[in-house]
């Protein structure tokens, strides 16, 4: 039986698929999020389907002051943790953020600052255990700033750098830090968006997130071809790039 895993933002489509894939491998789970009714239903479904221990509790990425106690409660209930998956996020409204920084601050607070807060607590615990893993779901949007979503992209880019720093810090202790960069995924977050292409299913993404634990890569693009798409986008010279409508 594999060790307990904390799933942050567990009711999102990608997190659900990841939770199912990890449960199928024998991991017990702690599902965390804000919708307690949905968490209860999800926990029962996974427990019945896979026969693993599943617990759940309230978590808000923006409530930094609660993160330390939250982690201690999880450790007490689960008897420790093998790993954590940070899957919470907020796409927000770019145009609203341009006009009102309150929206921009919310995008940054949830996608970056909140992640830094809870993963700092988790990293400190795993460092003392000298084993385990941290998986952070960022986005290809963080690879280069674009006018259409630069608040979200900046937050996800910052998260990727934070994960890189954690990886550098924790490598000597035996703790793995894996950065997941999905492309377009068929979720409620992307529903109705214009210009989507090569859209992946949440199940596909979740299965590959779980599979990343069996491989040696530190940064995983899902689907794989986004690594090359984003390489091309990063290589566009800035004098040309700034003229593009992206």
Task: Write up what this structure looks like.
The chain has 246 residues and is α/β, with parallel strands linked by helices. The protein is built from nine helices and seven strands, in the order βαβαβαβααβαβαβαα. The protein has one domain: NAD(P)-binding Rossmann-like Domain (Rossmann fold, 3-Layer(aba) Sandwich). It has helices spanning 13-24, 36-50, 67-78, 94-99, 101-129, 150-170, 202-211, 226-235, 238-241, and strands at 5-8, 29-33, 54-58, 83-86, 133-137, 176-182, 219-222. A seven-stranded parallel beta sheet has the order 3-2-1-4-5-6-7, with helices on both faces. Strand 5 (133-137), helix 6 and strand 6 form a beta-alpha-beta unit.
Structural class based on helices, strands and sheet pairing = alpha/beta
For this structure, what is the CATH homologous superfamily? NAD(P)-binding Rossmann-like Domain
- Beta-sheet strand percentage? 5-15%
Backbone CA Rg: 18 Å
CATH class: Alpha Beta
Mean pLDDT: 93
Main beta sheet: strand number and arrangement? 7 strands, parallel
Low-confidence stretches: none
Looking at the overall shape, the CATH architecture is: 3-Layer(aba) Sandwich
> How far apart lie the N and C ends?
46 Å
Shape: globular
Number of domains: 1
Order of helices and strands: EHEHEHEHHEHEHEHH
Strand order of the biggest β-sheet = 3-2-1-4-5-6-7
Percent helix among the residues? 40-55%
At the fold tier of CATH, the topology name is Rossmann fold
Number of helices: 9
Number of strands: 7
């Amino acid at each position: 039986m594999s060790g307990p895993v904390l799933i942050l933002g567990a009711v999102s489509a990608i997190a659900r698929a990841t939770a199912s894939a990890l449960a199928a491998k024998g991991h017990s789970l702690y599902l965390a999020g804000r919708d307690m009714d949905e968490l209860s239903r999800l926990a029962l479904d996974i427990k019945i389907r896979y026969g693993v221990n599943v617990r759940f509790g309230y978590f808000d990425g923006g409530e930094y002051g609660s993160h330390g106690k939250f982690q201690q409660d999880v450790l007490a209930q689960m008897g420790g943790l093998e790993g954590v998956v940070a899957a919470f996020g907020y796409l927000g409204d770019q145009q609203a953020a341009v006009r009102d920084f309150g929206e921009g601050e919310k995008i940054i607070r949830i996608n970056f600052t909140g992640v830094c807060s809870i993963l700092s607590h988790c990293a400190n615990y795993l460092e003392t255990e000298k084993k385990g893993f941290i998986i952070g779901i960022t986005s290809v949007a963080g690879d280069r700033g674009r006018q259409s979503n630069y608040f979200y992209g900046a937050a996800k880019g910052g998260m990727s750098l934070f994960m890189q720093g954690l990886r550098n810090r924790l490598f000597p202790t035996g703790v793995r830090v894996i950065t997941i960069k999905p492309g377009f995924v068929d979720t409620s977050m992307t529903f109705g968006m214009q210009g989507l292409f090569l859209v992946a299913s949440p199940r596909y993404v979740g299965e590959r997130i779980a599979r990343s634990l069996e491989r040696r890569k530190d940064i995983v693009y899902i689907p794989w071809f986004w690594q090359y798409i984003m390489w091309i986008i990063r290589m566009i010279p800035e004098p040309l790039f700034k003229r593009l409508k992206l």
